[in-house]
Design brief:
Shape: globular
Strand content: 15-25%
Number of strands: 11
CATH class of the largest domain: Alpha Beta
Strand order of the largest sheet: 8-7-6-9-10-11
Number of helices: 11
Helix content: 40-55%
Bound molecules: nicotinamide-adenine-dinucleotide
CATH architecture of the largest domain: 3-Layer(aba) Sandwich
């Protein structure tokens, strides 16, 4: 573990196994300087369990940076559940997982991530109080995805203004990869703002819906990066900006919801060198955790959530201006800012 390339002095890596329910999970707590580690739980089929470890290490660190950049009193944590490859009882699995969260003793607070829903949060809640993203309860914040989508939409507007010098998204071509909870909501905002959508997903039904509802053009998953667009919005899984894909990207802005979009740390500088404005993912996609933080505070205040989204826009403007001034990548400016905030 200590030699793992993604190990970053994480405070704790907790591994859980419950053969009865089929649970195999990793809860990674990266840094609690600002508060308990908070971040979603991902349920995913990993070809190799080592990929799950890598995901937990990288995602939990990104949560520390994300929460710090969003100005939240929360640290960084993230969990992955290895999806059982045989049929399983979902309730039993999430009960066992709830006990695992409880065992970490409040150093980690969970919510939804890919493959996990508010229904699962309700099951977790039967075992632990260290859970948010609930549908009911005094401060329930529900599915964080709509707020994530709103934050990404706002950030795209800021990026378009900075890079293209226009205040409106009318006619701006946005290529969206992944029309899930966040991607589809983002498309709704973009469509209302008059943007032109080019979309892809591995799920044909959702593509047809986007075509009917937004007049979106559909492309194959493998072709999304190469389309003529102003903005490329990765909203599926991480790693979509790599040395293999970057040469194909024609958009002058990369701004999407996916976590860990850069396949390797040098990709931030590679984007800058190609004249692409990369909007650091963990800054842009903080809407969901802002929404969760409102619930964790004990009183859900929609005005506070809006004010945090306003702050997110200001932070992005600062990052773009600093990167331009210093002649460095937006990614390195954001990382330095995040580290300063974590160590403050
Ligand atoms: P989701 O599972 O609802 O949606 C993902 C979508 O991507 C699905 O429709 C899936 O079919 C599609 N997809 C998967 N592989 C694909 C491929 N190769 N090409 C095209 N489409 C593909 O997940 P989500 O909640 O919308 O999250 C999307 C991304 O945003 C994830 O990386 C997640 O970690 C990140 N994120 C989500 C939130 C949130 O509030 N949900 C917050 C911050 C970050």
């Amino acid at each position: 573990m200590f030699d793992h390339p993604d190990f970053d002095d994480h405070e704790g890596i907790h591994v859980f196994s419950d053969p009865k329910s089929g649970l195999r999970a990793i809860i990674a707590v990266h840094n609690t300087n600002r508060g308990p580690g908070a971040g979603g739980t991902r349920l995913w089929s990993y070809a190799d369990p080592r990929d799950a470890v890598t995901d937990a290490l990288r995602l939990s660190k990104a949560m520390s940076y994300k929460n710090a950049m969003a100005g939240l009193d929360l640290g960084g944590g993230k969990a992955v559940i290895l999806r059982p490859d045989v049929e399983f009882d979902r309730t039993a699995l999430f009960e066992a997982y709830g006990r695992a969260v409880e065992a970490v003793g409040g150093r980690y607070i969970t919510a939804e991530d890919v493959g996990v829903s508010p229904d699962d949060m309700r099951v977790i809640k039967t075992q632990t109080d260290f859970v948010a993203g609930l549908d009911d309860g005094p401060a329930a914040s529900g599915d964080p995805s709509p707020v994530t989508a709103e934050g990404v939409y706002r950030g795209i507007k800021v990026a378009v203004h900075h890079a293209l010098g226009v205040a409106s998204l009318k006619g701006i071509r946005v290529a969206v990869q992944g029309l899930g909870h966040v991607g589809y909501g983002l498309c709704q905002h973009l469509h209302e703002a008059g943007a032109q959508l080019i979309v892809t997903d591995i799920n044909q039904a959702v593509l047809e819906k986007a075509e009917a509802e937004f007049g979106a053009s559909l492309v194959e998953p493998s072709g999304i990066q190469a389309v003529e667009a102003d903005v490329y919005a990765p909203c599926a899984l991480g790693g979509s900006i790599s040395k293999d894909t970057l040469p194909d990207i024609k958009a002058s802005i990369i701004a999407g919801a996916a976590n860990n979009q850069l396949a390797s740390p040098d990709m931030g500088e590679a984007c800058r060198a190609r004249g692409i404005l990369y909007v650091p993912d963990y800054v842009l996609n903080a809407g969901g955790i802002i929404n969760v933080a409102a619930e964790v505070s004990g009183t859900y205040d929609p005005k506070w959530v809006k004010s945090k989204l306003d702050e997110l826009e200001v932070t992005l403007k600062t990052i773009f201006a600093e990167a331009a001034k210093q002649g460095v990548s937006t990614d390195s400016v954001a990382n330095e800012m995040a580290k300063e905030r974590l160590n403050a």
